[in-house]
Please model this.
Amino acid sequence: MSLLVVGLSHRSAPVSVLERAALSPDAQVKLLQDTLAAEPAAEGAVLATCNRIELYADVDKFHAGVAELSTLLAQHSGVGLEELTPHLYVHYEDRAVHHLFSVACGLDSMVVGEGQILGQIKDALAIAQELHTAGRLLNDLFQQALRVGKRAHSETGIDRAGQSLVTFGLEQLSAGRAVEAWAKDKKVLVIGAGSMSSLAAATLARVGVGEIVIANRTQDRAERLAEILTGGDDTDVVARAVPMDSVPVELTRADIAVSCTGATGIVLTAESVAAAVEGRTGTPAAVRDEASAGPAGHLASTGLGTEDGCPLDLSAVQGNTGFSVMGEAAVAGIDAATLEQHAAWVDKGTGTVERRDSRRAPDADADVITALAATVATIGRIPERRRPEPVAEAPRPAPVLALLDLAMPRDIDAAVHRLLGVRLVDLESLADASADAPMAADVDQVRRIVSDEVAAFGAAQRAAHITPTVVALRAMAADVVANEIARLDGRLPDLDDKQRGEISQTVRRVVDKLLHAPTVRVKQLAAEPGGAGYADALRTLFDLDPETVAAVSRAENNTENAKNRGRA
Model:
């Protein structure tokens, strides 16, 4: 059996795909159950976070495993396999181990070094243990990943290479100001009371906001979070809980709003945010591009096709918002016959686009060429046309409402980005902001830790692979000793118990000494790359029954699984 991971993340798929592929807790359970029911997989675990979905399995066939796991991800995510496949990545055996260890250290996170992923890996392992889908391999793998992640955070400064997603999001909202100075005494609305929302609320409380209002569909959870925030020793924030239907009113009072719910649809629409801005300022919220925009959250009509008599099929060019129907971009892809009609329409002077004067005299062109040649002879080059001076843009008003969307799929309508007076930071903009973030020197040290740990894990797994064969060999030797002692008793019935015990102990000691060096050495050799063949060599040399070896392996796995059920 071999380790296989199939998944997608913010590195391989756009946020729009990740949003649609997000798995609910029930979908994760069903995915695990179906993975174990699939023929190629013997173990399974799902790591699902706001920016990654990964299915880990112990499979006996690589190609069949990839096909089956990809199909299962598509079925349970609701995204078609053809659409999902280009965004999937596959890691196998050592590469799969390296990937999970890198994820655990925060090297593969949207913000390098964030530590929240460790809790998510722990949760993934607990679910797999509870459902009995994690056997020896995945238990060893995930537990080792947790140790590697903790080692990376304790032995290096990887935390300095990046901040948690919440902290990074607040830094983007503060637009260069210190978060503490920017957030001091502000009123905050937190929508949702899950782990990410709680983390955001606690972070905001520590940086000195004045009030935090928690809205959640389950009122009890909101009230518990409010009590925890109010009772914190390191903050003096005022916190209270409200029902979800109070969000529109609370949004008009808030300076900052953070949303992270499990909702499958939009929680804050562009219209509701625009209404909140209008409630705060007393004036309707405008959009960023007044020339081509209408009411908040909506594009105005483009004027496409308002020219009378235009022969173009307007439905074919409606995607080219903002272009004249006589513009080059507007007519791209139109059939030749329609273009000829369009050209004739333009030549009649019906259109309004300024055209070059086709009646320019040849003498005028000759004069221009002569003048340019004289200029080149004098200064050695053709003078550049001076570009028009840039027109200063009108300053945009400072945001009156800062929004942080940490949900996947998104809670806040992306159209809010266009509203003046609002600053929205979501997972997509966080990915763009962190893409060019400089790597800290500690990242290299973490990568070395990951490489060392991958090698150690591989050696341990290879050594463990030969253990059932060694156990079966020692069991066979013990049976030989027992049979020979029994035969001796029949031949020498007059031996007393002391003599019989001395002989039995001597024979066992001889056998143990003969087997000790070979079994120790074979475990060492099996731990090295390419050492898997030593188990086969032992079985062949000592004529071990394969079923006996398999029985030992099953017994060990059952014992390990019983321990894991206890841990779950």
